[in-house]
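Before surveying the methods themselves, let us examine one representative protein, pairing a chain with its fold in token form.
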Amino acid sequence: MRGGDDRNPAIESKIPVPTDSSDGLRRSKRLASSTNIYDIPKELLVEILCRLPCAKSVYRCKSVSKSWGSLTSDSYFVGRLLWLQRDNQTLIPGTIINQLGDELLTTDLFATFRRFFEFEHKKGRLIVLLATWNDLVLCEDISLGEYYIYNPRTMQLVNLPPIHQCRCIWGCRPAVGFICEPYYKEEEDRLADNSDQKEEEERKVIKIDAEYKCKVVRILHPDDKEKLCFEFKIQVFSSEIGEWRESLVSCPRGFIYSGIYSRLVSRFGFASNGMLYWNATDGDLLGLGPLMINKKSTTTCSSTTANGDSGYQFHVIKLVRQELEDEDLLSSLYYLQVHHGRLQLVQTVENEDPSGVRLSVWELKKEELEQMAVQGGGELGQKHRKTYNLMDQVYYHELTSLEYMGSDPNDLDTCFVSLTDYHHDREPVTYKCNIHTGEWSEMETTFTGLALQVMFPWWPTPVPTISVCSHTE
């Protein structure tokens, strides 16, 4: 190996040059002695690496050498790999995790993180997962009031700056949401034709945004939990500014943040179509578009400022409730989820009828969500609803309590539920269910708590770049 070379001798591979003549054979031997994988032209190496069977294998090539690490970090390489995956219509896989990093679908990606959880828990710290965006996870150290953004595929982690902690009202912590701009997206590219024709050629290109922005939002509790509120105080962290800002944001249609008998807003926000959504226990949704907040110039760099962000507001999506025909209704619960980018409100209905459990799913199209955001709200009605019968009589008699665990990110027809039989003092059992056929199967794992989907794009998302504010108060 030549001095100063960054090549790894353990992976060097000879590349023979085939020929039929004896002179050619001797030449190929001489070439083989001096030609190795590092001598492949970069353009050819890009094409080879981009065709490896999985992104994990490609990502490991970063550690082969400095030159390979530089090559696979280049935007051209990433764009080429993404374009090939797009052409091949490669499905984007995913998994489901809970707040402690337990996985419902085994990928072992969070094994290292769970060990970190356990280690920190022994030191008296409690770290939980709050929200996801593709393969990025927002974590909170509750004991210290600190936030982190973590990628389990690359094991990259970035700390958010400290935040002014508000007091917890009624024993509840603030509602939190996490959203990012796309790391890459497909765009139309119009190229001028060099020929005599003055027509323009349209084509698709993959655009990489290494400086994509992310936002973390905290909705602070109003003083009166049963009052119809027309504005909410929020704290927003922006990666492009590098600080938390506190603002009053209007909610023209009004919303009761938490009523004893009416609703309780979920602490966990879900990102879809550039917006954040929180659901209430009665099915209504509270929406916010943090990526639409305008960046304002300021000479301060405190954890919170009095400068409000203009140009946007909360909006409310009301669920049109139909009178339930079931007189023997046992319970009805609402869950919010994002399934392959689509926002869905899921309702489970339990009754004493042998038909067991029904699952209703409301879904709004992207255009409808955008229109509601502009108009300040809208309605979820019967046209958005599909209903499935999930439970047969056999499972019904074993059922005492049901918890919806989410849809399978790798199978549109499958969902997961957790059943608990308190009469026989049994531990919760997780089942996989086909919503169309009603077929059930018991899973080996026991999974409880908030279900969050983690998707694995064709190329890992780097943790966001956090700007450092240089101003002082």
About this structure: The longest strand covers residues 243-256. Residues 23-87 form one domain. The two ends are 55 Å apart (CA to CA).
